[in-house]
Amino acid sequence: MRISITFPKRMIAMSGLVLGAAIALSSLGVVRAERFQPDKSKTYSCSGGYACLEAKSSGSSTIGLFAAVNGGSSNEAVYGQANLGVGVLGNASNGYGVSGEGALAGVFGEATNVGTSTTPGVYGYTTTDGAGTIGANLGGGIGIYGVSVSTYGVEGYSNSGPGVYGDGGYGLLAEATSVGYGPAIYAIGDGPSTSLFFAWNASTGKECAIDYNANMVCSGQIIGGGGVLARHHSSNGQRVLAYASESASATMEDVGEARLLNGVANVMIPSDFASVIDRNSNYYVFLTPLGETRGLYVSMKTAGGFQVRENDRGRTSVAFDYRIVARPIDASADRLPAAPRMHRPVLTAHRGPLALPQLPKLAH
C-alpha cells in the first residue's frame, strides 16, 4: 500500500469562523498562549471549506500558531479531527510543520473515516532532505509509536531510499505478539530481481543476503543448533527434510566411477573439483568394486590423481566407484573449534500495546 496525498502549497481562504486578531503573530518572538484568552463557551467549527482555523507567519523566527495548556491531566493544547480530510495540517518552509510536546503524547492523530485505509492518522512530508515526521522522547520512552487494529502500525515509503530507517542501540527491533503465524519481520520483494534480505557489517565487511529466489548467501559461516536440514520433494510430491552429514573439520567430497584394466587404473581428479581443494594437503579415497576381485587398494596419490591396484598382483578388469574427501582451499585447519557465544540483545523497547490517550470528540 502506498499513500499518495497532495496538499496545496498555499492554504486557501477558510469558510466558517476565521480568527482575525484573536491570535497575534510577532516577528520578534512567540506570543505565549497564556496571553490569548478565548471565550471558552464557544467552539470554533465549520462544515465546509478548507480549514476552520488558519494561522500564517512570515517572520524568520515566529510560529504560525502556538497553543499551551498548563493544567489538567488529559487536556490537549491543539486537537483536530476531520472525518474525510486532515485533522491538523502544518506547513513550514524552514522549520517543523507540526511540533508537539506533552507528557502523554507529543502529537496524536486520529482518522475516523472507517473503511478508507488510505487516510493516515498522522501524515508528514517535507520538500527538502529533512524528515517528514520526527518523533522524539527524551524521557526514555518510544519516539514514534503506531497502532492499527487490522493493518500496519507504521508504514514507510520512499521512491529511492529506505522506506523505514532505524539507527540507535538497535537499528530495528521487531516483535510479533499476536497469537498465530504472524512473523516478527515480513519482507516482500515486488520485482523479479528484488532481494528479500540484505545485512552488512560496516566494520568487518561481512555480509549476508537472501536473493530473489530465496537463496541465502553469507560471507561468514552458518551455524545451527540441531544440524543442517535441506528441503526436498519426494516422488509423490511430498516435502521432506534431509540431514546434512557433519564432520570434525571442513571437508569437500566428490564421487566418480573408473575401471581396472589388467588389475591397475590411473584416475585423474576432475579439474573442477581440483580447483577448489587444497592439493597441498592430504586427501582420502574410498573404493567400491563393482564385481568380484581379490580386493582393491590405492597404490599411489598425487596432487593430480591416484592409482588403484588389485590385491595379490591380480589382473582383473572390473569397474569400481570411488569417493574423494579433501579439504577446501579456503578452509582453515581448525578441528572442532569452539562455538561462538550468542549475544542476545537486552530488550528495552516497550512490549505490548500502549495505553492510547482517550481524546474527546469535537462537535461538528
Task: Characterise the protein shown here.
- The structure is a single chain.
- With 364 residues, the protein is an all-beta fold.
- The chain folds into three domains: 1-186, no CATH class; 189-246, no CATH class; 252-326, Immunoglobulin-like (Sandwich), CATH 2.60.40.
- The chain has one helix at residues 271-274, and strands at residues 197-200, 207-210, 216-218, 229-233, 239-243, 252-259, 264-268, 284-289, 296-301, 305-310, 319-326.
- The strands form four sheets. The chain has a three-stranded antiparallel β-sheet with strand order 1-2-3, with no helix packed on it. It has a three-stranded antiparallel β-sheet with strand order 6-11-8, with no helix packed on it. Strands 7-10-9 form a three-stranded antiparallel β-sheet, with no helix packed on it.
- The protein is rod-shaped, with a radius of gyration of 35 Å.
- The model is unreliable at 1-36 (pLDDT under 50).
Features:
disordered N terminus; rod-shaped; Immunoglobulin-like; 1 helix; mainly beta; three-stranded antiparallel beta sheet; single chain; 364 residues; 3 domains
Mean of residue pLDDT values? 77
Number of beta strands? 11
Residue share in helix: under 10%
Low-confidence stretches: 1-36
Which structural class should the secondary elements be placed in? mainly beta
Q: Estimate nothing, just give the exact number of structural domains.
A: 3
- Distance N terminus to C terminus? 31 Å
Q: Within the largest sheet, what's the order of strands?
A: 1-2-3
Rg result: 35 Å
Largest sheet: 3 strands, antiparallel
The number of helical segments is 1
Please indicate the percent range of residues in DSSP E strands (runs of 2 or more).
Answer: 15-25%
The global form is rod-shaped
